Every structure is written in C-alpha cells, then in structure tokens.
Amino acid sequence: MEDKKARIIQAAIEVLSSKGIEKTKVSDIVKRAGIAQGTFYLYFPSKLAVMPSIAEVMVQKTLSYLEKNVDPEAAIQEQLQVLIRTVFQLQNEEREKTALLFAGLASSEYLKEWESIYAPYYKWMSTLLGKAQARGTIRSSLDVNRTARLLIGIIESAAEQIYLYDQIDEMEAKVQTDELYTFIKHALGIEVL
Amino acid sequence: MEDKKARIIQAAIEVLSSKGIEKTKVSDIVKRAGIAQGTFYLYFPSKLAVMPSIAEVMVQKTLSYLEKNVDPEAAIQEQLQVLIRTVFQLQNEEREKTALLFAGLASSEYLKEWESIYAPYYKWMSTLLGKAQARGTIRSSLDVNRTARLLIGIIESAAEQIYLYDQIDEMEAKVQTDELYTFIKHALGIEVL
Amino acid sequence: MEDKKARIIQAAIEVLSSKGIEKTKVSDIVKRAGIAQGTFYLYFPSKLAVMPSIAEVMVQKTLSYLEKNVDPEAAIQEQLQVLIRTVFQLQNEEREKTALLFAGLASSEYLKEWESIYAPYYKWMSTLLGKAQARGTIRSSLDVNRTARLLIGIIESAAEQIYLYDQIDEMEAKVQTDELYTFIKHALGIEVL
Amino acid sequence: MEDKKARIIQAAIEVLSSKGIEKTKVSDIVKRAGIAQGTFYLYFPSKLAVMPSIAEVMVQKTLSYLEKNVDPEAAIQEQLQVLIRTVFQLQNEEREKTALLFAGLASSEYLKEWESIYAPYYKWMSTLLGKAQARGTIRSSLDVNRTARLLIGIIESAAEQIYLYDQIDEMEAKVQTDELYTFIKHALGIEVL
DNA sequence: TATGAATGAGGCTTCATTCAT
DNA sequence: AATGAATGAAGCCTCATTCAT
Asked: Nearest-CA neighbor of C83 among C92, C71, C96?
C-alpha cells in the first residue's frame, strides 16, 4: 500500500534530520518505520532513491504552510513579511533537515529532479507575484517566473545562512530578516514611502 | 612540503568534480596526486578534512577572479554586471564542483567552517558596497555587511539554478542574468533612469 | 494441476539456459511461468528441487530424439554415426543448458539422483549394444552395461568440449566427430576394412 | 607476495571440498588462510575469480602425479594402466572436489578458461600418444591431439561416474577400470593378443 | 489452489585508516 | 617523509521462503 511508502519517507526524514545523510543507514530507516529491511526495497530501488521523495514532502510542507499563512488578498508587503517569516521559521524548525537534504540530493544522481520537485513552489510564488503585478503594486518590468525563482533562492539562502553561520540569536535574526525584507521590497519596486 | 598538500587539494578538487562526494575515494585522490595512500594521512587527518581546504581554494579562486575583473573605481552598475557575469561563468566552468563541494561540507562536521571560509568573500563584497554607499550610488538604508551576504546568496543561488535546472541555453542564460541584474539594482536602490 | 508443474519446469529450463544456475532466481522462473511467487512452492519444496525434474526432461528429450533417429535395425556403424550426430546437435542446440544443469545438480543435494535420471538413457544404449553383440558386429568381450556408460560419457564429454573450448567451426566439428567415431569403432571392435 | 595468493587458493580448495561451492563463503576462506577479509580482494576481484586458480592447481597436481608415475619409456599398455589408476585414485581422494569445482567453474563466467587450464594436461597426453605412435604401438590413423582430449574426457567421465553413482565398491571399481582399459586399448588400436 | 507482499538472515564487497618497512 | 599492503568494520542489497488473504 501507499501507506507503507509514506511511512518509509517519514521515517527517512526523521532519521536523516537527526543523523545526517552520511550516517543514515537503511537499517535505521526501516527500524523506525517498523518494517523489514527487504521491504524498503519494494518501494525504493536504493537508499539514495528516497531523497527526492523526502524533498517533495518538504516542499509540500512548506507550500501548505505558506498557503495557510499567506493571505492571497493581503497587500504584497504583508505577504512578503509572512513569507519570509514562515520560511525562516520552517528552516529553524527543520534545522539540519534542509541542509542535509540538499546534501543528500546533491550527492545522489537525483540532483536533476530538484527542478520538478520545486516546480509547485515556483508556481505558487509566480502566481503571487502575478497578482501583485496585476494590481500594480510591484514593478511591471519584472518577469514573474524568473523573479519567483530569484525570490525563493534568496530567501532560502538567507535562511540557511542564519542557521549555518550564526548562533541563533533572536535579535540578529530579526535584523537579518528586516534587511532581507527591505532588500526584496526594493527589488520588487514596491513603493516605500 | 606544502607543495604536496597543495597537490592533494588540487587532486581532490578534480576528483570531486568528476565523481561527486559520495563516490570520491581516498584512493582516487592519491592516484591523481601521484602519491601513496598513506601519504594522504600525513597531511590530512581524515578524508573529510580536505573539504574545508577545497572550499578555501575555491573561494580564493573566485575572489582572485573578481579582484582581477571588477574595477574598484567603476560605477556600481558596471561592477555588478561584471560580478554577476564572473560568478556565473565560474559556476559554469566549475560545473558540479560547487554543489558537490557544498554537499561535501554539509555532510561533514566541517559545516561550521563555511562561515570563516566565506569571510574574505563577504568582506570583499562589503567593501564594494561600502564604497558605493559612500559615493551615494546605492541606498544609504542598507547594511553593507548583511547585504553583502544577501547578494552573494542570491547570485550563487541563481547561478546554481541555471546549471541545475535549465539546459544551458545561451539565450535563456542572458535573460536570467538580466533579470537578476535588474532585481539587484532595484534592491540596492540604484537609480534607474 | 500437473500442467502447472510442467510449466514451472519448462520455465526453469529456459531461465537456466539463459542466465545460469547462479543467477537464476525463483522470481525469474515464476515470471516466465506466469504464476505467482508462492505458487512455485506448492509444486516444489525449494528452488533446488526443480533441478532433477529438469534433468529428467532433458534426458527424455535426448532419448526421444535418439529413438526417432536411430534405426534399431540398421548396422551398428550407422547407428553410431546417427547417435553421435544427434548428441552433438542437441548439445549445440541446448548450448549452456547441459553444463549449467550439471552445475545445478552438482551444487545441490540432488547429485545422487543423477544415476536414476540417466538410467533410461543407459538402458537404451545397453539394448543397442546388446543387439549388436548378438548380431556379432561388436566384440563379444565387452560388457554392454558398463560400455553403455563409457560410450555416453565419451560422447557427451566430446560434445561439451566442442562447445566449451572451440569456436564452433563447422570444419573442425566434422573432423572431431570423425575422430570420435573412429575411436569408438575401434573401441567396440567393429570390423574396419 | 605471491605466497599469500597461494595461501588463498589453498584455503579455497580446502573449504570448497568440505562445504561445496554454494556454501563456501569468502569469510570461510580468509579464516582458513589466516588473512583479513579485505585482503582476499587484493588478490582476487571476486569470490568466483578463485575458481580458475583452483582448477589450475588441481590440473597441475594431476599432471605432477602422472609425470611421477607414468614411465615415459614403458609400453603404452602399462602407461594406460597407470594413467587410469592414477586418475581414478585422484578422483577418489579428491572426492567432491572435482565435481564441486566443475560446478563452480560452470556457474561462473570463467567457464571459458577451462580450455587454457587443461592445455598442459592435453599436451602431456598428446606427447604420450605421439611417442607411442612413433613406436608403432598404437594405430597410425589417429590424430594425437584430438585423441588426447577424447582419452582425458572418457577417463574423467568414467572416474566421475564411479564416485557419483556407485557406492564405492572395490570390486566393481576394478571391473569398471578393466572395462575402460579394454575399451581404450581397442580404441587406440593396441595389439591385443 | 493461488496470490504476492512481506520477511530477514546473511553474504559480498568497499574503503577509510593503519603500520611495518 | 613516504610507501602501499594489510586490515576489518560495517552496510547495502538480494532473494529464498512464508503466510495472511
């Protein structure tokens, strides 16, 4: 059943976030999933093959958070604020997960799947920008699809840096996100009064 | 001799870029470096211990390119253009290297060293921004240090995406970099006439 | 039904000849037989347990060919010629089968069944020799039962060698079989004028 | 050192003869050889890769026995008697070895090496026949090279049958070898008075 | 009688690291 | 400082067999 596949993915996410890709063994995953070692291979051809599924789940999670939190009718400024806050918060919650995951994906042959996994995320962001552009609240010169990627890229990269480089200092985090917010506001040509 | 250490690092870079972290074996590295298996351990305590050195070398390379190409006296617009072009070009040349490297670092315990390795890169960028700010060609409201990180983050992320997701299509690459350039110009508050 | 058992044996023969004993999996066999994995075990207690059945089928096949081709009334010379030709031809058709089969049997605990499987083959050959001896066309000093085994042994061994060691060269094959024929003719004391 | 390779082969022979190919594990071999598991793979690329070496050693052993026992100056009759006795005796001593080995070889990809491994054995036999032919004690019509193969084939096949099918009954064994001897004597056209 | 998902023991192999030379 | 043969722990995966349906 699909249920078992889901359980494997869930178990893999959990193990991965606590042990890191290098040290995650299939035996750990199956133990946590409560299945036999061989069963794993009924659903995934190899250890690395779970990675894309994990990424997918995580992107979905991010998206569902965003859809829940970001009011489609709100002003772009508020949307951005919520967006940034949500991504940072998720990044913070998931801690190692994102980095480890990327590491996992990068070291697998599944690197190329990244694109399709991120597709819904990009799409959501494009739509957001599209509406704002229609309303005239962001500059008309930008291309919504390409800018969607740039935005996601910069927000995630900023979020990663906070985790990676800084001790998580509430104060500093706040200042960073403000800087990021202002950066983006200007980039999008949002009127700053 | 230090020469041997350098040879190991160089060999490691080469092997890593062609095989990926997961499949890079110490035996490959030493073979390419033309030394004996045991010799590796005279210079590095473990396989993962080369990673930071590799990152350092690559950051240095990027920096030296930037220092050579970016005219400190030029207008910020031109500096940005050159900056973007250089990073994209390097990313393209190095292909998998960056991603694999990050993966390598991420999966090692050396993740935390990323900060210090990138320090000179951030510093260079800060200085660039600082000068522009002093000249009044970028908005005074931005914090040069934090913005330096954001800039490096977005440029690298954009460059990675081009390699990862798109077939490398000259035309599309051009459009992407233009979009990025405009994005940044706005973000920095550079006067667009 | 017995039909299903036969289908399993047939499938096993086919898989075995193309993949070799070591690489033949029960899953391959059932796939080819068009049945479920578990069904196999309703007809055979273990994987190795098909081996004797396979051998039996192949011996039967050989025998039926021989019975069809070798004229019981013909002169022993002609009978031998046909015999050799038939075995060589089968060996050639079946290619790896014989060797692989023997390997399969040998590596199983079923080695001892070989005797009973070959029994009808030996019997046929004994009868042939017996008649010739009664007619006085082969030497009276030979023991028909033991000689039957020797004959089958040498013919099969020669046939295997042709397949295994030599490139299958029509010309050489002809010369080999001639040499074998002459060898046997002398061994049996058939008058050579 | 070559010494270690030899030790591995020796250990493999011993383990193989007592456990059979299917049940022989690399771990058994290295344990008996007194080396580490990994060391095995410095000398052989895989478990199956020892098989040809084993076969080689066994052919060499047979040959050395034959060279020691068969008097090159003796009459062909006596040479044959000794030859048969020696092969049967070896077969008996080695018991499972030969069968298991063949099984091992057959189930490996090394089947084709059989030819080169047997080459010295064939050569020795050809020489023996050649001398006898020169002396005029065997029929001039036979081809020494091809007949050498036939002879080795029939003797080995007969020897195997004794082990495989019959309880080892001294009396019967004697009768079998006599029958074989007579068979061969006729086949070679040796004068029987 | 038939199914096929699930099992789980266990082997082969890899490869980072060591150490005697 | 350099070597490279030897080590051996450890993990991925296979696949014969079982069993609930």
From this structure: C71
pLDDT digits (tens, 9 = 90+) for A120-136: 999 999 999 999 999 99
Confidence of residue B95 (pLDDT cuts 50, 70, 90): low
Torsion C183-C184-C188-C190 (CA) sign: negative
SS in 3 state form for chain B? CHHHHHHHHHHHHHHHHHHCCCCCCHHHHHHHHCCCHHHHHHHCCCCCCHHHHHHHHHHHHHHHHHHHHCCCCCCHHHHHHHHHHHHHHHHHHHCHHHHHHHHHHHCCHHHHHHHHHHHHHHHHHHHHHHHHHHHCCCCCCCCHHHHHHHHHHHHHHHHHHHHHHCCCCHHHHHHHHHHHHHHHHHHCCCCCC
Chains B and D, touching by 3 or more CB pairs within 8 angstroms? no
How many domains does chain C divide into? 2
CATH of the domain at B134: 1.10.357.10
Is there a single domain that holds both residue D61 and residue D108?
yes
C83 and C20 belong to one structural domain: no
Closest residue in chain C to residue D16, using alpha carbons only: C107
Asked if chain C contacts chain D via 3 or more Cβ pairs within 8 Å, the reply is: yes
Taking the C-alpha atoms of residue A175 and residue B149, their distance in angstroms, rounded to an integer, is 13
| pLDDT tens track for D124-135 | 999 999 999 999
Q: Which chain A residue is nearest to residue B165, measuring alpha carbons?
A: A115
pLDDT grade, residue B115 (50/70/90)?
confident
User: Taking CB atoms and an 8 Å limit, are D186 and C182 in contact across chains?
Assistant: no
Percent of chain B with pLDDT over 70: 87
The span from the CA of D118 to the CA of D111, in Å, is 12
Neighbours of chain A (3+ CB pairs under 8 A): B
Checking each nucleotide's C1' against the CA of B39, the nearest proves to be F2
> The tokens 């000179």 sit on which residue?
B120
CB nearest D107 (choices: C21, C179, C180): C21
C-alpha closest to that of C17 among C126, C86, C101: C101
Token pair recorded at residue A6: 């889901």
Q: What's the one-letter identity of residue D157?
A: S
User: Which nucleotide across the nucleic acid strands is nearest to B22, CA versus C1'?
Assistant: E15
Angle at C126 between CA C124 and CA C130, to 5 degrees: 120
Please check whether residues D28 and D66 belong to one and the same domain. Answer: no
Q: Which nucleotides of F are covered by protein (CB under 7 A)?
A: 1-20
How does DSSP classify residue A70? Answer: S
Confidence at B54, pLDDT banded by 50, 70, 90 = confident
Interface test with B, best of A101, A138, A141, A146 (most B CBs within 10 A): A146
Could you read off the pLDDT of D17-74 as tens digits, one per residue? 788 777 889 999 999 999 999 999 999 999 989 988 888 898 999 999 999 999 999 9
Domain with A27, as residue range(s), is 1-47
Q: Is A50 helix (H, G, I), strand (E, B) or coil?
A: helix
Could you tell me the CATH number of the domain that includes residue B24?
A: 1.10.10.60
User: pLDDT at position B33, please?
Assistant: 96
CB contact under 8 A, C184 and D187: yes
User: Contact partners of B by the rule of 3+ C-beta pairs under 8 A?
Assistant: A
Of A165-174, B112-121, C120-129, D147-156, minimum mean pLDDT range? A165-174
The answer to whether residue A192 is domain-embedded is no
The one-character DSSP state at A7 is H
State both tokens at A140.
């008309």
CB of A58 within 8 A of CB of A94?
Answer: yes
Contacts of D103 in chain C (CB under 8 A): 102-103, 106-107
For testing contact with chain B, the best of A126, A162, A165 (most B CBs within 10 A): A165
